[in-house]
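Moderator note: this is an archived Q&A kept for reference. The question asked for a predicted structure of one protein chain; the sequence and the answer are reproduced below.
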Amino acid sequence: MRTLLYQGFILTNLDGKTDSWRLTIADEVRIGSLFELRRQVAFYQELGVLPPVKDYPAPTSTSPKRKPGHPSKGRKKQLG
């Protein structure tokens, strides 16, 4: 199952197909492609008829722990 968060609305894909995304707003469920559902969200936001969205906290960026003695990726030792 894949889940996307788009402007406070949750889009879920249970089947893995590109055109089977599900958007739930209040008690209404829409199923379609990502393009179509994003367009619908933008249209309803323009009209101002969407209920307030839940504020989701931003994911914290934690770096994975490295094993001692292993240099970090992306940095090269300078010789000289």
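Archived answer notes: The CA atoms of residues 10 and 46 lie 19 Å apart.
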